[in-house]
Design a protein that fits this description.
392 residues, alpha/beta, eight-stranded mixed β-sheet, 35% helix, globular
Length: 392
């Protein structure tokens, strides 16, 4: 019987509101997954007082992600089954720190000689922070067998690169800043993008993502693309809009791709009408609440945002709660969006409109480079003159 590698999670709304796991259960290759998790858990977090390990400070969702990244192999053919991972998570949940640790694990467990790992950060400052995090992990950690990592790597701070010194399978990590370095198509084995939404304004981003996926599709490339991002600070557009939409469709089951979507966002019915302001919703989308995120901190940030006005409120909601600007917030969006979803009726279709209406008009929007074409029919019902609409 074929193994079920479906990554859809159609009950995600129930899971996230009940604080259950939103990482799909997959038939992972346990030896690979467990080996990677053991290594990840023993790595030292260099920028926390007392220098605890990742195993001590991370919540279960991180361990599930690590197992999914490194265990997605068919044990019979030794082929990678899942190539992409998309994580949407608010600020302060340890994105950059987790990303650096995953890349270090990938270099150590790599099986492809001279493989390259690429970590793309949104700014020069965050790229430097990512390098410092990875270098700090290497300087302070030991393997599960007790071997210091510092003797296995060479660090090159001036170019933000790290070499894994192996006689049989050497590999290299490069850390680049999206706003300063030239980011072109890559043939890297492991690619980690921190803050995908930054690429929305990059006119070459779509081509870069195509080349990345093209490189990963080679049978000998057993690597992965991992995107870890917050929600956009503006209405989603460009490559971020398409990447987020793709991940949502995979999660909802309408698109089948070798991707694991882990999206910490509120169901729309909880996000609209300022529902996101209820502190009861905050832990639903902040899985590290009580660890790297505190309710008191978010409360103070909300009070400050309220004092600063609508733009600050929108920024708080998008960055700390992953509320999408446009539909979930009035800022930069249509004011009727908060009422729109309440008006939907599933029994309205074109056949119903033809049977019950006496007047109809049709509108078409062909869309643009980063938008979809749409069709809408607005019609008046004969009996009570009510207006009905259907669209696609």
């Amino acid at each position: 019987m074929a193994l079920d590698w479906s990554t859809a999670l159609p009950d995600w709304r129930d899971r996230i509101t009940q604080h259950q796991s939103i990482v799909p259960e997959l038939p992972l290759h346990a030896p690979r997954a467990d080996r990677a998790l053991r290594l990840f858990k023993c790595l030292t977090v260099p920028d926390i007082e007392g220098n605890p390990t990742y195993g001590e400070v991370c919540a279960d969702w991180v361990f599930e992600l690590v197992r999914a990244v490194f265990g997605a192999f068919d044990p019979e053919t030794n082929a990678r089954i899942i190539r992409e991972y998309f994580v949407l998570i608010p600020k302060k949940n340890g994105k950059t720190s987790i990303a650096a640790a995953i890349i270090v694990v990938a270099l150590i467990l790599n099986e492809r000689p001279n493989a390259e790992a690429l970590l793309v950060a949104p700014t020069q400052k965050i790229a430097e922070m990512a390098y410092d995090q990875a270098a700090g992990i290497i300087k302070m950690s030991v393997t599960p067998a007790g071997t210091p990592l510092s003797g296995l790597f060479a660090l090159h701070a001036h170019v933000r690169s790290i070499d894994y010194l192996s006689d049989t399978v050497p590999s290299k990590m490069s850390i680049k800043a999206a706003d300063a370095d030239v980011i072109t198509g890559s043939k890297a084995t492991y690619i980690l993008i921190d803050e995908t939404h930054v690429f929305a304004t990059n006119t070459r981003a779509a081509g870069v993502f195509r080349e990345i996926r093209g490189g990963l599709s080679h049978p000998q490339n057993k690597g992965f693309l991992l995107q870890i991002t917050t929600q956009s600070k503006a209405v989603p557009s460009g490559v971020f809009k398409s990447e987020l939409g793709r991940a949502r469709r995979v999660r909802d089951g309408s698109l089948k791709l070798p991707m694991v979507p882990i999206l910490y966002e509120l169901p729309i019915e909880l996000a609209i009408d300022d529902g996101w302001r209820d502190p009861a919703t905050w832990a639903m989308v902040n899985p590290h609440m009580g660890r790297s995120v505190s309710e008191d901190f978010l409360t103070d940030e909300l009070i400050s945002a309220e004092a600063d006005g609508p733009e600050a409120m929108a920024l708080f909601a998008s960055q700390h709660l992953n509320v999408e600007i446009g539909l979930g917030l009035n800022q930069d969006g249509w004011s009727g969006a908060r009422h729109w979803l309440k008006c939907g009726k599933s029994d309205i279709d074109l056949d119903m409109i033809r049977r019950t209406c006496d007047v109809a008009t049709i509108g078409v929007d062909w869309g643009g480079a980063d938008d979809l074409a749409s069709l809408a029919v607005l019609a008046r019902r004969k009996t009570d003159k009510a207006w009905l609409t259907w669209g696609m």
